[in-house]
Task: structure prediction
Amino acid sequence: MISDLQGQIWLDGTFCDWKDAKIHILTHTLHYGTGVFEGVRAYETEQGPAIFRLQDHTSRLFKSAELIGMNIPYSQTELMEAQCESVKINKLKNAYIRPLCFYGNEGMGLRADNLKVHASVSSWDWGAYLGEDKIKNGIKVKVSPFPKRAADSMLYKAKATGNYLNSMLALQDALSSGYDEALILDTEDTVNEGSGENFFIVKNETLITPGLSTVLDGITRKTIIQLAADLEISTEEKKIELDEVYNCDEAFFTGTAAEVTPIIQINNESIGNRKPGKITSMLQENYFKLITGRYNRHSDWLTII
Result:
């Protein structure tokens, strides 16, 4: 169990033993999903461990908090320092980092006006989210039959804990049907994203990805769009019909956890020749060079520990 790992967790300003980082059963966020979080990664480089796009992740954490009316009692600088120290104190070369801000157990009920905001940072060595084989050879994806998203129904720009119930249901449905991931639609039956990833297709050597009306503004998504531009590959953001997906040349997911994961099948339809496509492979290669300090651009996205 992840709770059995050894190490230190930063909680409300100080580090404590991993096993002692506990909350009360009546913690407000546990009951109502009123928390915000980030998924951040650090990678081993020649200069030491480096956190990828630390400032961008931390800024989005604070933006998410603002969107749900939460006032984080720490500065961005303090939380960035906590993330760096978390990697250092746990002696990690590669790390998945989880900052979390949540309401405590000072009261119960929907009203949050008397509740304290708590903050934590946990770091551990997680490896490939979908497995090394899947990130190399590709995954099978099921179009989720539920639930469908509407632009005005939830705060999709916030990386909020409560937003992930839809994702959990979609992923459980996909896994129980023998697939690796889910593809979630909106109320117009156009494509949104995976359970925890942004979605891209390639058609005629152009990247196409859904606009941001009902998807998270992914940091890896923005990174891939920039890496494509470095290769003089254009990106179009628009609504994507399922027919376009089934007839695309390539498809892949992006995310801090998923990194760049090729998609070789959606429902019963093969994508391309059921192998990672040329552009997907180039972007994946350059992404891994970038996050490990071996790319010749964007070095400012790496925070060396």
The first helix runs from residue 28 to 32. The mean pLDDT is 95. The chain has eight helices and 17 strands. Residues 42 and 256 are 10 Å apart (CA to CA).
